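hi!! sorry for the late reply, been swamped w classes. u asked for the two structures so here they r. pasted raw, havent cleaned anything up. first the sequence of the first protein and right below it the tokens
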Amino acid sequence: MTSGIACVSQGLAGMNLIRADSDISLGVKAYAKYHLFGQDFYLTTTHVCILIVMAIILAFAIAVNRAAKKADPEKAPGPLMNVAEMLVEALDNLTVQNMGPKNAPKFANYIGTIAVFIFIANISGLFGLRAPTADYGVTLPLALITWVMIQFNGFKHQKMGKIKGLFEPIFLFFPINLISEFATPVSMSLRLFGNILSGTVMLSLIYGLLPKVVTLVWPAALHAYLDLFSGGIQTFVFIMLTMVFVADAIGDEETA
């Protein structure tokens, strides 16, 4: 039975109906190796894709900056300025709704930055890249930055109330409350990483197992869902959790 299946598989591969397993790549590849401070460092697919994503964001920012300088306040803005204004206004309104008008200006730039970076990174698969957020080494630092911001604002605004809250409602809840504090960056990073990685794996398998002619058309619908829709949803979830956790650390009296 096994030999029969193997013969069928080899026959399909020979007819170019499926690709060889060696063509399927799901992991991160290393392009170069460096030895520094007694440790080996690698230039990987993730680093290259991050640089490309950053270059895209930087090019967009420079283009918007030049368009803003040349804009005539007495005339209607061009398409690029319309897109930029709509993006900034949407992110500012979202920050105000979740963090309050008093704190929104303090965090709007950070929320906007991670929103743009995560979204572009998530949808980079549309341009043939391996999404950087499919690497846990990218999503964990993003979540840790948010976690540090949560703790900083918690101690800044609640002071010793932050420590007191770990023992509420009773002393026995201290271990559970402490674990929940450290679980925040883990859950945020794993949620983003898992969703983007699953889409990357599915598309890699499809491109690896289907004939090239079919992959020119059919996976477009999957790219629209796994890259564009799912990437947008995960971006929204990450920034929403960031705003909610930070606002909760600040306290209701500060976000009114």
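now the second protein. again sequence first, tokens right under
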Amino acid sequence: MAETITLADIKTDEKSWWCPGCGDFGVLAALQKAVVDLQIAPHQMVMVAGIGCSGKIGNYINSYNIHVVHGRTLPTAMGVKLANRGLTVLAVGGDGDGFAIGMGHFIHACRRNVDVTYLTMDNHIYGLTKGQNSPTSDRGAKVKTAPEGSIEAPVRPLQMALASGATWVGQGFSSNQAELVELIKSAIGHRGFSFLNVISPCVTYNKVNTYAWYKEVLHTLKADAAYRTDDRQAAMGRAMETEELVTGLLFEDRDAVAYEDQVAGYRDEPLTEQSLDLSAAEWEDVLAELR
């Protein structure tokens, strides 16, 4: 009988360098709880972490961990999954990493639908580099790079994901642990690309989008019994009309087929477990194609 996975198996001994009160602590706790609930062993999971405060999260989860260069979490994560489809692969990063230099990869990951979970910690600011505006900063936000207020329209991650074809789209709040744990479990369980944006307040540099502010303005979709999660158009409408100030599962296409399940000749076994030998018949087929 397999041993039961506990929190002690998932946590590491490394001390966090996040600021006290950072929303990323809540994301870390929820992710650890979700992994335990799903009973994913450390050797069965890969964390691909980006650049920024959030990118350190991979150091606090006992699993395979790849810390990549800025904006490159998704191509790396997709490569890992295609090499070994037996692994649970999570790409994690912040709003700057994912929606600035990494935006091109984000859009293509949505449309390709590789079975990877992408979890972003969105604090509407660049925290690691001391408080510049990020792609998701609100118009008018007064930060170091825009002391009189940002004049740029913010990126809307949920709308971008829906428009780009993502087959699972949701949003959580680091302060709402119960909902966030369930969202992470649902995202990991989805067969295809799942995008979970997590509102994760920065207590040091963002004095506008605070815990208190979000608790006043956020609305959970669970409160709307009539809301259907299988309607992409309705999900887009809800995201637009609320300026994305919602939490919960916005959309899931349960009939979508993952990218790797459509590749001709792609075996279920990981590359490391496949035989490199060719039978005489297979070798003849290869030669026939070259003649």
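hope this helps!! also noticed smth abt the second:
Strands lie at 45-49, 64-67, 88-94, 117-122, 168-173, 194-199, 219-220, 246-252.
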